[in-house]
Amino acid sequence: MVSMGRTLTAEIAAAAAVLVVEHGMEYGPAKRKAARDVGGRGTRGVELPSNEAIEDEVRDVLALFHADEQPEELAALRRHALRWMERLAALRPHLAGAAWRGTATRRSSLHLDLYCDDPKAAEIALINLGLDYDTASGPAGGRGEPVPVLTLGSRCDELGDTVTVHLHVRDLDDLRGALKPDARGRTLRGDAGALRRLIAAEAEGAGA
Predict the structure, then answer these.
(1) Residue 179 DSSP symbol
(2) Cα angle at 93 between 90 and 96, to 5 degrees?
(3) Which residues on neighbouring strands pair with residue 189, listed in sequence order?
(4) Which of 15, 95, 145, 195 is surrounded by the fewest CB atoms within 10 Å?
């Protein structure tokens, strides 16, 4: 039973990765849908894959089927994210998610963490820019409370499409632990300076 459970968990991770890459789904919804698609009720009690396991599968899918176009799409998304970070510089923006981790495609959303001493500062900034947005709550932040998420569409000329941008409004105190690495030693987010260095390094590598 343990072996079968592990095999099913791996199948769910692989199916979730396809949903992430082909449909731009986030990891949480993708793993839940994959569990239903793979085994239906037979997955009840089966351990769902970790985000790390799904990310590994995503990288495999990208390497096998999207190696030609994905690097350019990722670079375009990162440049688009940087422009948003420059617009919202006063709110200490950090890029997170697939665009930071290097697995984003044109179907991916952008996730920016904003560290604010005033929880309304982000909404005020968007209103001042004349932008419409939707509000929701994301996973709990450092204080154990749900994090406000402001979502809007943003035209990306390089991709010729509209990109969904999620602004996660975090408390300023959370910034102290923002750059801690994950279990594999990878950072979960980076500020504008780190993103510029990453863009420059990858541009240099592509031209080598």
Answers:
(1) T
(2) 175
(3) 96
(4) 145
Question: Buried (b) or exposed (e) across 146-183, using 16+ Cβ within 10 A?
Answer: ebbbbebeeebeebeeebebbbbbbeeeebeebeeeee
Local confidence pLDDT in tens for the 208 residues of the chain: 334 555 889 999 999 999 999 999 999 999 999 999 987 655 666 789 999 999 999 999 999 999 999 999 999 999 999 999 999 999 999 999 999 999 999 999 999 999 999 989 999 999 999 999 999 998 766 666 789 999 999 999 999 999 999 999 999 999 988 888 887 788 999 999 999 999 999 888 776 5
What tokens appear for 62 in the block?
A: 């990208």
How far is the C-alpha of 65 from the C-alpha of 46, rounded, in Å? 29
Q: Is the dihedral of CA 155, 158, 159, 160 positive or negative?
A: positive
CB burial readout 108-142, b (16+ within 10 A) else e: bbbbbbbbbeeeebbbebbeeeeeebeeeeeeebe
Residue keyed to tokens 């799409």: 73
Q: For residue 99, which amino acid is it?
A: A
How many residues in total does the chain contain? 208
Residues 159/106, Cβ–Cβ less than 8 Å: yes
Report the alpha-carbon distance of residue 150 to residue 126 in Å, rounded: 9
Query: In this predicted structure, what is the pLDDT of residue 164?
Result: 98
pTM comes to: 0.91
